[in-house]
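protien #1 (seq + structre)
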Amino acid sequence: MTQRILDLAAAAPASHGEDLVLLLSEANELYQQGLQNLRREVAARLDGLATADLMHAADTAGMPCDPSQDRAEVILLLALAEWQMTPAAMAYAEMAGAAARRGICLVPEE
């Protein structure tokens, strides 16, 4: 998955229009899949911790929590903090940012 996202990110600067949208769409799907895989790993790894401890860990990781958030949401925040530091996520973020600067976005304008 990481290698495919890196490959897509490398191909993006030479792509235009619909081709770039297709690359971005595939990379987005892989990004989401990677995040969900990591979320499951984080949930298993932190299974024994109290929700309050998870919230403290999320705050420490720069992902502030709201007291109304449940355990699953806090685990997702922790996974997101970890995922954003991976080469795949960083490549996707750069790819999406560069595409946005060229006027290409996966969210249609209304």
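ok now protien #2
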Amino acid sequence: MVASDMRLAVVLANEVEAVDLTRASRPEWTHLSSRGPQLVGLKPGAQRTDHTSVLAAFLDTGMDREQKPVWYVPYAKIAPRLSITATPSTTNGQPADSSTSPRFVSLPIVARHGTGRMVLNAATHLPQKVVTY
């Protein structure tokens, strides 16, 4: 799962090209994990302000940055920024009363075969639960 400032994306192993693994930003990301899913962050890219440049970048590569290990950074590096867009939630990903300090926050998950939310501990930003719809 790849975390950016605004959302979480599920990237399946068959969506990452072998050549892109050789360009990974850290040695541990130069191969697919045999221990199961990995949680990583996504370093910010250049801000694109017009639709044409975003489309051109996607068409050039055929992939989003989430599928390119060269863009990965340790999750801990981006975790504090998640609170900017995360919403207070219950442990089941439902909206929580924001008048009190929430124990949990959540972010949307983007995946090809469904949608959901990742529930995070509000203090540590570590994942607690995935809720799918």
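The longest strand covers residues 104-111.
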